[in-house]
Amino acid sequence: MSTHQPPRTDTPPLLNRPAFGTDFIWGTATAAYQIEGAVDRDGRGPSIWDTFSKQKGKIKTGEHADIACEFYDRYESDLRLHKELGLDHFRFSLSWSRILPDGTAPPRGGRINEAGLAFYDRLIDHCLRLGLTPWITLYHWDLPLALENQGGWPNRQIVDWFTDFVDVCTKAYGHKVKHWIILNEPLAFSVLGYFTGQHAPGRRGFWNLLPVIHNTALAQAEGGRMVRQNVPDAQIGTAFSCSPVDPFTPRDQNAAARVDALMNRLFIEPALGLGYPSDTLPFLSDIARKVAKPGDMERLAFDFDFIGLQHYFRAVVEQSLFMPYLWAKEVTALRRGVPVITEMGWEVYPDSMYRIIRQFSQYAGIKKLIITESGAAFYDTVQHGMVNDTARTEYHQQYLTQVLRARQEGLPVDGYFAWTFLDNFEWAEGYRPRFGLVYVDFRTQQRIVKASGRWFQQFLTAENETSKRL
Length: 470
Ligand code: FCB
What we know:
Elements: H1 17-20, E1 25-29, H2 32-35, H3 48-52, H4 71-84, E2 89-93, H5 96-99, H6 114-130, E3 133-139, H7 145-148, H8 158-173, E4 179-184, H9 186-194, H10 206-230, E5 235-241, E6 245-247, H11 253-265, H12 268-271, H13 285-291, H14 296-299, E7 306-310, E8 315-319, E9 328-330, H15 333-336, H16 351-361, E10 369-374, H17 390-408, E11 413-418, E12 438-441, E13 446-449, H18 451-461
Parallel strand pairs: 1-2, 1-11, 2-3, 3-4, 4-5, 5-7, 6-8, 7-10, 10-11
Antiparallel strand pairs: 8-9, 12-13
Helix pairs in contact: 4-6, 8-10, 9-10, 16-17, 17-18
Bound molecules: beta-D-fucopyranose.
């Protein structure tokens, strides 16, 4: 079936696998700290999340991820289950401090932890044996503590530390892993980690923010170049959190434009050679004037093969005098009284998936988009050994329908990774919000495939039976 059909404006497209085409990528996404556990095993060094999660008051439920899903020991059976669900692509991240316990590689005084490298080697081999394509995320927020102790992301040396790490990983796995994602949601870890302090390392204040943004954008491009050098046939991407932004009232148009610049443009535009969006956010011009070194602005660009979009909700904003620099704030889903709100307080608004794909498709420099995360946390209950998560199933069906709509209009969206495979440690929220297609009983480590997981299985493996108009 052709994937380039004329736009359908009357009824939403029929959801069935063949409509996406045979080359569409189906997978789930995970992250090391959220699932692995085994934080002190086989020579792993501590990361900023190990210490942050143990500080009082940082995690809403007072929990940490020392054990998490025990994926470190259970990956073989977990990945078999993943494959059984019909999902052929598996996205995971590498724990930097498992591979380089001091953060730095040998040329800069650090050492390689062979046992850490060997773990991911086994994991990758197991994926390949099962017919699962591995997608590696090089940085999903768990900075080695040793590097935070030397200044972390505000220290410009991080660009070299990170590039060295990428060098080690691509030399180790590049011959068998061909899909690489450089950073996971640079906006989230820079703002939440170094400006608001809600995430590790929990630092606050404006003075860190511009250096962190700039070092992160440089690391994104330099990391890309390092993968290209070591794995010339790799597909290289980077993954952004993104949301279409709507003004709450017509008066809030400018506020919406500023939030859009922050949420959606800040890291893609420098990568495309367009510089930071200082036209809309003037404070960003201080990066070029005060933070950057000569030649930096050119180094920010990298020719990514794909851009990962991580989309969950739309943003509705209004102007606000209390939020310096941005002069805008979110109007929460709760305040707007929207019909479906997830456990994270996020609005379920499927049309926003279509809109964000369309928005990113407008950049001439983007070749391909992959939805590298989308999903929903709802309260789950186990009844008679089953988890009947209708709301989550509907979320995926409705958001996928919008992906299909975009694809049928010829927009270059080529894959969907559900967030996430297993219920896991949801950062500052602890284990309470469950996003998995597979339920995890954290006392016994038992896995139960939820109805949403079964829906994917049926959808991906059955012939046309699940066609559904939503
Ligand atoms: C994204 C993160 C991912 C997970 C989901 C719910 O922002 O990349 O680790 O927390 O949100």
